[in-house]
Amino acid sequence: MPYTDGDLAAKLADEAGKILLSVRASGLFGGKALGKAGDQTANQFLCLALREQRPDDGLLSEEEKDSAERLAKSRVWIVDPVDGTREYGEERSDWAVHVGMAVDGVPVLGAVALPGHGQVLRSDQPGKMPAAPERLRMVVSRTRPAREATGVAEAIGAELVPMGSAGAKAMAILRGEADIYLHSGGQYEWDSCAPAAVALGWGLHVSRIDGSPLVYNREDVYMPDLLICRKEHAEMVLHEVQAFL
């Protein structure tokens, strides 16, 4: 039976995650070589599988040479074989595999695998999130927290939660480990397409930090900033971040 788009995204993310765990467990690579081996192996699997299963769709991957052909496509798969290569190489759990799809620029479908947690979160199978605590929690970069994020956290009295990959940060909200993900340090389309799709599918607020929508499959794949949070906190965060723009 052919895979639905949702099942295909989840299958690919899950299998790529298993491949990455096997590469790491082999003990054949260390340091930066492990990250490179993982990226290349997972990317080859994802791109070959997508071209086999969805030959008429466009494709954009962090680890694949970009092609202008995708710009003429309505449906484009946007993947990141290892989001959080550093964390993967350090044998941490806060890294992810992203398999997302944008239709006419909108992130409509995605799956984010968290292999370190044995979990795949899907846009088409939303779950129930626990209630937010009295003191909100904001996920930020482990190594370079953005000025806007730390400033907003201070303004609203939120606790900072350092974490690795963009996918891990976004999924931390769904997993009940955080409430706000505000990023302003610059990313690329593959960093956020799948997490944005999953967050939208679960009923969260997703936007740029000026409140405008995230738009994908552009010629320039750089994306300066984003906000993912519970809908009830969006207006407050968007208001506070204006002081830092």
Automatic annotation (TrEMBL):
| Keyword check for Magnesium | yes
Task: Tell me the superkingdom of the source.
Answer: Bacteria
Q: Which BP terms in the Gene Ontology apply to this protein?
A: 3'-phosphoadenosine 5'-phosphosulfate metabolic process; sulfate assimilation
Which cofactors are reported in the record for this sequence? Mg(2+)
GO MF term set? 3'(2'),5'-bisphosphate nucleotidase activity; metal ion binding
Q: Which InterPro entries match?
A: CysQ/Inositol_MonoPase (IPR050725), Inositol_monophosphatase-like (IPR000760)
Q: Which Pfam families match?
A: Inositol_P
Q: Where does Mg(2+) bind?
A: 62, 80, 83, 191
Is Ribosomal protein among the key words of this record?
A: no
PANTHER family, alphabetized: 3'(2'),5'-BISPHOSPHATE NUCLEOTIDASE 1
Q: What is this protein called?
A: MFS transporter
**Which species is the source of this protein?**
Novosphingobium barchaimii LL02
